[in-house]
Amino acid sequence: MSRLLLVSFQQAVRSITLALLPIAFISLLVWATAGSSNGNTADPLRAALWLFLAAHHVPLQLSLSNQTISGVITFLPLGALLVPYWTAKSGYNRMVEILGIPNTRTKRLYILDYALCYSIVAYVISLLAMGSTVYVPFYIAIPILFAVCALFTYLISDVLPDHGNSLPWQRALKFATIALIFLIGIATLLLTISLAWHFTTVVNLTQVIAPGIIGGIAFLLIQILYLPNIAVATLSYLSGAGLTLGGGTHISPLIHRIDEIPAIPLLGALPVVSNPWMLILAIVPVSIGVVMASYARRTYIDFTEIKRFLIASHIFIFVFSIGIALVAGGELLSSNLDFVGALWWLMPIAITLESALGLSLAIGIPLLISRVKASRAEI
Fold it and tell me: What was the pLDDT predicted at 35?
């Protein structure tokens, strides 16, 4: 056990260091080309640690020296989760090389020990960047760091139980996962089309920032990392629920309540007016219910199992939608941007109800047709 803890600690330090080095290099490069006259080399290093925490979706509490801007940043890029995924994969694989291939029980010990050491080491290192300006309490940072690292290590370690997909809830879990991936994929395609359609607006927003060459590359990278967040917001718009960019704003096919948008190029894809005809896009989540009904008929004969599968599928879709909306959205520093992203409570309701509508149509229309045919035959 002591050897396992030692190796876990060593690999946690190694993985975190390897992840911080390129982030620190980029931060130093951007800082060096920014031409700041009142900074020191410690600033970009502290920024690298803040970015490292943000990549793990640890909320940052900010309070600037002039007290004019203060708040919490929880609107963090989903794409940056590649950083903890890479560190978890690197650390776990190295542990296996040193300690040997584990059995199922030992794998769980590997995961727990590595995630524990990782979260503690990461927080201790991040203390170097904390102060009156940026701060994260340990009771928030350590549990999130542990959960993110443990989740990715759990997925990488192949310790998932193989029970097959025989039970209705197991098939429902798989179906709901695939359905949401499909919906996000369609939303990403819609986002791409909108960005191309509003290309001039995107260019104008980029010119407003004028980040320069090095800063432009870093800014482009940030935009790419935020693409999954915007895709989820697009899915909320596609479902008809809409999205928000802070207090008092609401953008949906039926509502367009916003005065101005932040100078973020990705937001150039936003519609400039309400578009009721865009509600036709709700046919996409409706089609999920149609496919669900078809799959249930092909898979099950017993009505009870069909009912269990359909109910479980909608429960999973609803719960997963809430989780995705919450992770993809969040607060952006000030009370004016108290929540940015998909409407986390309305999007799951809309998607679930639209899927249920598709299910009802897929079941009800054939029954209605059969009854009409039966009545005509009697005549």
Answer: 57
